[in-house]
Amino acid sequence: MGFKLNIITVSLLAVSGSAMATNFGVGNANTDSINMDKYQCKRCVSTNGYIGEVSVSAGYNSVDDIHAGNALGSAEDGAIAAVSGDIRYQNETGYRAQIQAHQLGMDNGFANIKVGKSGLYELELDYQSLKSYQAGDVQSQLWHDDGMLTPSSYTNEFDLALKREKSAIGFNYGEGFYNTFIRYSQEEKTGHQSSSLVAPSPVNFGLPVDATTKQLDAGASLAGDNWLTELSYFGSYYGNNIKDLSLPHMNDVYSATPDNEAHQVSLSGQYQFNRTVMSGRLVTGRMIQDDALIQMSGNPLQSWDGQIDTLDGRFAVTSMLSNRLRLGGSVDYSKRDNKSSVWEFTQYSYNGLSGSFKQNVPQDIERNTYKVNASYRIASGYRLQAGYDRKEVDRSYSEREQTNEDSLWAKFNVSAFDTFKVNLKASHGNRGGSDYEVDEVTSSQENALMRKYYLADRKRNAVELKVNHSPLSWMSIDVTGRYAKDDYDATEIGLTESEDFGYDVNLSLQFSKHLSAYGFAGQQWINSAQAGSQSFSSPDWNADIEDEFINIGAGFSYGGLMQDKLTLGGDYLFSNSISDTSVGGTLVTTNGSQPYGDYFSYNHSVRMYADYALSKQMALKLSYQYERYYDTDAAQVATNAVPGLTTLGELNHDYNAHEVMLSFSYLLR
Questions:
Q1: Structural domain boundaries enclosing 199
Q2: Is residue 456 part of a domain?
Q3: Structural domains of the chain, count
Q4: CB–CB of 423/413 below 8 Å?
Q5: Residues of the chain with pLDDT under 70
Q6: 3-state SS, residue 477
Q7: Which of 28, 49, 168, 483 is most exposed, with minimal Cβ within 10 Å?
C-alpha cells in the first residue's frame, strides 16, 4: 500500500534511535541455507478474497430536546436507521480495496473507500457528516431573507445547530524510494448560531450560517537508507455565502465573515548518522483576505487588502551518546508578518467626533523556542529525564512588545517491577519581559494598571504523578494526580492567581474468560482570582471563580451465555460541572445583589445491549441508550427580562432522552 510521508512520520522515525542504522527485520534475514520445504504454517489463514462485516440498524428515538442529538447521534424524534460496515478485499496480485462506514443515515456518520495496489498506488474517497446542537425551537422576531433582517410581530423559530458535510478525494502513488500524493476536500457548513447587534439597543438573533471551505494538499517525498525528505503544498479557500446583514431602516448593521484563503509550502527532512538523528522543517505561507468593506463616513478603503506572510522553521537533533545517555535539542522559529493595508481613520469618542486621525496598526509576531533535554538510564527499569525550554515572543504595537518564558522540568520513570510502574514529573516556569506600556498603544478607556494574563509576569509550578499497578493477574489500576499553580505577582488589575488540580483513576477487571468490567473516576478543580476597578483607578473589587468537573463511569461485558451465543453488556457515565463566582468589594448592582450568577450542569448516560449470534456469520444486537441532562446558566435570561436587551430566551436544558436500536450484522468470510 502506498503511504504518505509527513511531519508525523518524520517525528516517529526520529524517535526510532539507531533502529535505522542496522535492519534486523525478518524480511532481511538470510534464508539461503534453509530448506523451506520442511516448514509449513499450520495456523496461517489466507486473507485473499472478501472479509469484513456489514450491519443494518433500525430503531426509535424519544427526544424532547435536540441537544440530546449530541449524545444519541441523531436528534430525530421517531424512527431512525443507519448502515455500518467494514469490508476488505485483496488478491494474489496485491490489489486491495476497503469500504468502511459508520452510522450512515444518522446526523453523525462517515464513509470511506480505498482502492489500490499494495506498494504502488491508492485512491481514496471520503465522506463525513457532523452535526452539533445547542438549542432547539429558539424564538426571535427577526426574520432573515437574502441579507435582510426584518422585524415582525410573528415569531421566527429555528434551531441553534451547525451541520458540517465534508467530502474528499485523494490519490497517492509511489514505489520504493519515492511517493507522491494529492488530496482535495470540500466542507459545507450550514445552520444557525447565536449572535448580536446594536440597533440601537442590543439584540440577540440567530445568525444564518452557509459557508464553504475547500482544501487542496499535494506533495512528493523521497527516502534513502538513512534519510528522507518531503516537499508539500497546503491550500485552504473559505467562502461565506451569507453577506453583510441589514435592517429595513438601516443598511449593513452586521458585517459578515469575509472570504479568505491561505497557502503553505513545506520542506521537511531527516538524516541519520550512526546513533544521531537530525530532522528539520521549513514552511512558508501567506494568508489573504480582500473582501469589500462596509462603507461609512471616515472610511477611505473599499476593501481591506489583508495579507499576512508566515515563516516557520524547526531543527531538532537527538543522539544516543551511550546505552544509558541520550541528548536532544530543538530550535523553533515562527514569524507572522502582517502586510495588510495601513490607513488613517477618523477616531470617535464618547463625546462625539474628536477630529483626530490615527492609523490602524497591523501587528507582527515573532517567536523563538529553544529546547534541550537529556535522558539517562540509571539502571534497568529506572530512567531520569530533564530539560530546559525557553520561548521568546516579540509583538509589535502591543502593550508588551517582548515576553520571555523559561521552564525547567524533570521526569523520573520506574518500570523495574512487573506489576508496578511510576512516572513523576515536576516543572517550574517563569515569564517576564519588557515594560508594560498601556497608555501608548491602547485607548483611554483601558486602566493603566490592567495586565492581560497572556502578557503579564507569571510564575508557574506543576507536578504530576502517574502510577500503574497490577496487583492481580486479572486486575489493573491506573492513578494520575496533578497540580499546577500560576502566580501573577506583578498584576494589580486582572488575573492575579490560578490553580488547577485533579486526579484520574482507571480500573480494568477480567474476572473470567467471559466476564470483564471497567470503571473510572476523575475530578478537576480550577480556582482563579481576579481584581478590577469600577472607579477606573486602583483595585476596588475582586472575584473568585471556582470551577469543578467530575466524570464517573463503569461498564461490564458478560459473554458465553446460551452456548456462547449471547453476550450482555452495559455502560454508565455521570458527568457534572459547577462554576461558582463570588464578587467582593464595591462592585454591586443597584439593589445590592452580586452581579454574577453560577453555572451548573450534570449528565447521566446509560447504555445496555444484548448481542446474539444467529449463526457463525449472522448476529442480532438489541441496544438501549438513555440520557438525563440538566444545566442552568444565570447568564441566560428571558427575551425581554432586562430592559433594553432582547435575547433569544433561556436556552437552558432539562430533558430525558431514550433510544432503542435493533441491528443485524453479517460477517463476510
A1: 1-19+49-270
A2: no
A3: 1
A4: yes
A5: 1-47, 298, 345-359, 439-445, 586-596
A6: strand
A7: 28
